[in-house]
């Protein structure tokens, strides 16, 4: 059994990386490991008591990242807890890795760096590209283009540094390894391994159990409502195209964010019917997955897309914009869901929505295939992969 230390930027907090950390930490404890979590900021401390196993200690670090008090705290945790494995959930920026390596110097614990996103994409890069593509000023366009190139270069330097100063680097998809190598300019990839995120919610007893509960004619979006990466307006605009033709269907949006008011205003102005804004839900949206028939995700930026496998394990058929390569690990296109091609076109999304709405037999068949496919990401399966990595690095 291992003594594990997770290091993460914001925790406890709402978000995909934070949720995965909680689920893995609790599951490791259930398997007999001992777990500690250190975070640099603790925005929602109440979640510790609500979601985290009582045996897991939360250590509060702070900013700036490499201040001496952080170093002393980490050294004390590593020594007092006899830490065997450090899992760095915030391996960008490189300064976190630098801090960890100073803290573990002359100690036997291993460092695993886990990248929870696409190597060559992040929100900042997408924002710069958005400004570049939406300005008519040639000087500004040139400036944003150069800024994007510089940011990509700096990201590559960060990846290179962390790779060279870690014992193992974990990405979410095998398809990310090629991108990682190209961006970081490393010549070999012996220290890179792909381990997917697990299903982070309670799974149904069986697919037959889902059928007994029954599905309703609803299309579902779950997630943060922002423009920069989620592009939720595409979901609403696709529904706008079909809502008059299919009066017994509705669109449900679960989540909050800066774009929510804009979307609500758009729906009202355009008289788009049967759109339900459910807002942010503190609890896992299991009830929505149980009832929904179709899941829509039209993001320009996703690392893995937890909501996709969450929906699939409840038999919700996903229609996902193929903006990130990991989605091809999750969905068997045309069998357990649909992946629309790049660049994004509303007509592609609408076509797949109508195909599922009008063909109930196909929808039910794909629902079963989605449920089966999601089993590849069951928690126990992913835990086995992590424990196999621990054993490999310690031998």
Q: Strand sequence of the main sheet, in spatial order?
A: 3-2-1-4-5-6-7
Number of E-type strands: 13
What is the tally of helical segments? 16
Helix content: 40-55%
Overall tally of domains:
2
Largest sheet: 7 strands, parallel
Task: Please outline the helices and strands.
Blueprint: E1 3-10, H1 16-30, E2 34-41, H2 46-51, E3 57-60, H3 68-80, E4 85-88, H4 94-103, E5 110-114, H5 123-133, H6 138-164, E6 168-171, H7 175-184, E7 192-194, H8 207-213, E8 218-222, H9 233-242, E9 250-254, H10 260-269, E10 275-279, H11 286-291, E11 294-297, H12 306-312, E12 317-321, H13 327-330, E13 338-340, H14 346-358, H15 360-374, H16 379-394
Parallel strand pairs: 1-2, 1-4, 2-3, 4-5, 5-6, 6-7, 8-9, 8-11, 9-10, 11-12, 12-13
């Amino acid at each position: 059994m291992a003594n594990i230390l997770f290091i993460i930027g914001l925790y406890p907090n709402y978000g995909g990386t934070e949720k995965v950390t909680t689920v893995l930490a609790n599951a490791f404890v259930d398997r007999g490991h001992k777990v500690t979590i250190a975070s640099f900021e603790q925005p929602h401390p109440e979640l510790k008591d609500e979601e985290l196993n009582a045996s897991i200690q939360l250590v509060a670090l702070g900013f700036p990242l490499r201040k001496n008090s952080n170093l002393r705290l980490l050294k004390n945790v590593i020594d007092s807890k006899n830490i065997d494995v450090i899992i760095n959930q915030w391996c960008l920026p490189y300064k976190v890795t630098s801090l960890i390596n100073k803290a573990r110097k002359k100690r036997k614990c291993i460092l695993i760096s886990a990248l929870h996103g696409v190597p060559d994409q992040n929100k900042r890069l997408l924002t710069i590209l958005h400004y570049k593509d939406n300005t008519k000023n040639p000087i500004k366009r040139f400036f944003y283009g150069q800024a994007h190139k510089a940011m990509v270069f700096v990201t590559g330097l960060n990846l290179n540094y962390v790779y060279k100063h870690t014992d193992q680097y974990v990405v979410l998809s095998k398809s990310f390894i090629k991108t990682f190598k190209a961006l970081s300019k490393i010549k070999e990839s012996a220290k890179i391994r792909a381990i997917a995120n697990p299903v982070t919610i309670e799974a149904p007893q069986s697919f037959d159990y889902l059928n007994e509960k029954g599905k309703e004619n609803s299309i579902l979006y779950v997630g943060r409502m922002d423009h920069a990466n989620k592009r939720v307006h595409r979901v609403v605009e696709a529904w706008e195209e079909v809502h008059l033709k299919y009066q017994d269907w509705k669109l449900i949006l679960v989540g909050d964010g800066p774009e929510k008011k804009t979307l609500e205003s758009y729906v009202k102005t355009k008289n788009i019917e049967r759109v339900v804004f459910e807002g942010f839900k503190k609890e896992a949206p299991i009830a929505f997955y149980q009832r929904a028939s179709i899941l829509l995700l039209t993001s320009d930026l996703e690392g893995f897309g937890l909501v996709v496998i969450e929906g699939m394990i409840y038999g919700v058929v996903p229609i996902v914009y193929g903006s990130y390569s990991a989605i091809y690990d999750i969905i068997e296109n045309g069998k357990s869901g649909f992946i629309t091609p790049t660049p994004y076109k509303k007509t592609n999304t609408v076509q797949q929505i109508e195909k599922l709405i009008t063909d109930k037999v196909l929808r039910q068949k794909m629902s079963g295939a989605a449920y089966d496919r999601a089993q590849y990401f069951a928690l126990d399966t992913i835990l086995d992969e992590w424990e196999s990595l621990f054993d490999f690095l310690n031998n």
